[in-house]
Amino acid sequence: MRGIAFFFALLTALLLGCTNTRVVQSRYIIQTEAAASRCSYTWQPGDYWEFLAWALLDDVSSSSVLAITAGFSPETLPSPGTKISIPLPEEYEEAAEDRMEAARLVRRATDIRESDHNMCMEYLRDASAIDPAWSVPVTNITVLLLAENRTAEALELLEPMCYKNTPALILAGIEWRQGNTNGALRHLSEALITTTPKPEVLAAAGIAWSVTGNRERAGNIIRRLLENPEAPSELRVLALRYAMMLGE
C-alpha cells in the first residue's frame, strides 16, 4: 500500500506541474550544416533561444546549438522582425511558425493559470487549434479538466495522443485511479517506448510494476532512473527510497 501512495503522489505532482514541463515529442528533424535547404523563421518580440528550442525541438539544452546554427551567439537575441535560419527542413517553415504561435499562447496560459482559469483554458484551446499535433496544449487542458473532475473529457482528449509519452503517462494515472491496472500498465509501456524515457516516466513505471508484483522489471527501471545524472534529485531520492523498500 505504501507503493500505491507513492505512485499517486508522484502522478499528482506531475499533473500539477505539467504546464511547465517539456512534454512534446518533436516531429521535426535537425539537419546538418551541409543540408541544401534551411527553414526560415521571423523572430518575434519575446522570443529567446531556450523558448524556440523548447517549442521546436523539445530540448531546451539545444538552445545554444540552435543560436549558433542560426549565426548568433547564444547570448545575443535577434531584433524582432529579423529572419533567421533554423536547422529544420525548408518545407517545415509554415509548421514552425504555427508551432511558435501556439507556444506563445501556451506561455500566456501558463502566466495566468492561477489567476484566470477561463482565459487560461481559452488560450490553450486556441493553441491546440493552431497546432493540433502538439501535445503540450492538450495535456495542459487535461490538467485543468482533471482538477475539475471532468475525467471523461480528459480521456477523450488524450486518447488520440497516447503514443506520446506524457499523454500516455497521464492516461496511466487516470486508469490507475479508476482501478484499471492493466490499462495503466499498458499506457506506461507506451510512455516507455523511446530511447530516452523521461525520468518521471521511469519513476512512475518503476513504482507501478513494483506494486503489481513485477519486481524484477521494476528494479531494472528504477536502476535506469538512479543511473541518470540529469534526473531531478527528488525523483532519484524517491526511487532510491522505494528500491530500499523492495529489499525489505
Rg estimate, integer Å: 19 Å
Strand fraction equals under 5%
Distance between the termini: 14 Å
Name the strands of the widest sheet in spatial order. Answer: 1-2
Structural class designation: mainly alpha
Mean pLDDT figure:
79
Helix/strand order, N-terminal first: HEHHEHHHHHHHHH
Number of strands: 2
Q: What is the overall shape? A: globular
- Poorly predicted runs are 1-9, 12-37
Share of helix, binned: 55-70%
Main beta sheet strand tally, sense and closure: 2 strands, antiparallel
Number of helices: 12
Provide an overview of this structure:
60% of the residues lie in helices and 3% in strands. It is mostly helical. Helix 1 runs antiparallel to helix 10 and helix 2 packs across helix 4.
Output the keywords.
248 residues, mainly alpha, two-stranded antiparallel sheet, 2 strands, disordered N terminus
In short:
This protein is mainly α. The chain is built from twelve helices and two strands. Helix 1 crosses helix 8 (165-177) and helix 4 (93-111) packs antiparallel against helix 5.
